Amino acid sequence: MATIKQIQANRRNAQRSTGPRTPEGKQAVRFNALTHGIRAESVIIPGEDQSKFNEHLARLSAAWLPQDEMEKSLVEQIAANQWKLARLDRSEARLYEAGALDPAAFVMAIHRLYLTQARLERCISTAVADLERYRKVRLARREDLGMAENNLFQKGIIYGTCKEDRTFFILPQVRGLDGEWRDVPREALGDFPKPPAAS
Asked: Of the residues 38, 61, 110, 166, which has the maximum number of CB atoms within 10 A of its CB?
């Protein structure tokens, strides 16, 4: 147990130690507490390839086809946890290298590794279940609004004239997430003639 003088000395020393102050210093110590990257703020840690993670995320997005921000977020969560799980497998391989750890430290490291692995696998399973559940609710909500998944567009008619001939332009109306039909904005029509003035 520490004596009163040691406690007081520790407090004095702690007041002098404020950590890095410059942006370069903060950047240098950003990952000091990181041992295997599982709790890193960033999914990608030094030594990993951002483009490989982006490819992994793109493959998952192509498989799940997220339709809104919530689904995109859940797919990203699945991708991040799978990426961390792969990192964990690489860490496990290093534990078995000759002389890497003494037997007691090895047992503790393997135990922590398996607990983390189980937690990540649960997170992936939960995110998949959440994604499927959310997708069911979203589709049910659309059906309640009278919107089938393939019923997002309908034909709209815009009247115009071309050299005394009457012309009708058929353009789609778009159904929003709230179920309301909206005309294509006039700006999107380009150089179509203006409709005749009402008489």
From this structure: 38
